[in-house]
Amino acid sequence: MLDLLSDILTNLSMRGTLYFRTSFTKPWGVAVPSYENVARFHFVNRGSCLIAVDGVDDPVCLEQGDLVIIPHGASHDLYCGHDPENTILPLDTVLEKSGYDGSGVLVYGGHDTQSETQLICGHFSFEKDAKHILMQRLPPIIHLRNYGETAGKWMEATLRMIGDETGGLRMGSDLIALKMSEAILAQSIRSFVESADAPEWGLGGFSDKHLRRALDAFHKSPDQVWTVENLAHAAGMSRTSFAVLFQKKMDMTPMQYVTSWRIEIAKKHLVDPSNTLTDAAEYAGYASDSAFARVFKKETGMTPASFRRQATSSFVR
Length: 317
Hints:
Blueprint: H1 2-11, E1 15-26, E2 29-32, E3 38-46, E4 49-53, E5 60-62, E6 67-70, E7 76-79, H2 84-87, E8 89-90, H3 91-98, E9 105-109, E10 112-125, H4 133-136, E11 142-144, H5 147-151, H6 153-165, H7 173-193, H8 209-220, H9 228-235, H10 239-250, H11 254-270, H12 277-283, H13 289-300, H14 304-316
Parallel strand pairs: 1-9, 2-8
Antiparallel strand pairs: 1-10, 2-7, 3-6, 3-10, 4-5, 4-7, 6-11
Helix pairs in contact: 1-7, 6-7, 8-9, 9-10, 11-12
């Protein structure tokens, strides 16, 4: 799964940002606003807290060692549970009251020093126009309990090391923590996709051994000629059985998936001024500019040239 996931995340231009490491003492509460095109994460390095995510009915209790991912950047409240109506304040207010200047540890809350909660908080941004069903279909919140232990000793050590490096004074601390956190995001998405909950969200195909072989083959050479027949061959299945299984587990046809990902590849190459429209078409597996333009407009509502102009204009601003 990781090689396939790596290709998806790389082409979506994932970029990580670590916010800070916290030291919260009761009573405390933070209202984190929503942001588009981001996945947020919080790792409980010490202590515990509650998290209430917009769109999710009930708050979730986070214990030491838990990792929570907010895949779609929804607004959410992090709090100690004490008098939430009065203790949960907007993030900007908390930053102002704490005097946090963007470096070191965010220290905030009351005087109950025996109840310290240490969080490692950050987010990952994606290109505005980039999309993939793997990211789009993830639930509003992914809660991985005692994540370090569940994922193995190396993952627990990595999470602890992120905690040590975040806000540290040694050279390269921020970069080391950032790169490690990118690995954590990939690992956490993989853990969810391989879980029993994945089929409920239309993501069961990514852990199916037959469909995985077809998806791997396609992602390695998306510019080659792909049909249901040769995808089925890569999966080691008959055409009919493959098509039925793909539709059942992915809630789309094999060729819909192929087309969708090819358009994402094309978008990435269209925003590169060194590429021509023909280059973008070829990278995406289209033999003619006219066929590429027709499919691109059908999928995005824009011509390739219009998309390029809009993307370039947004980038310049």
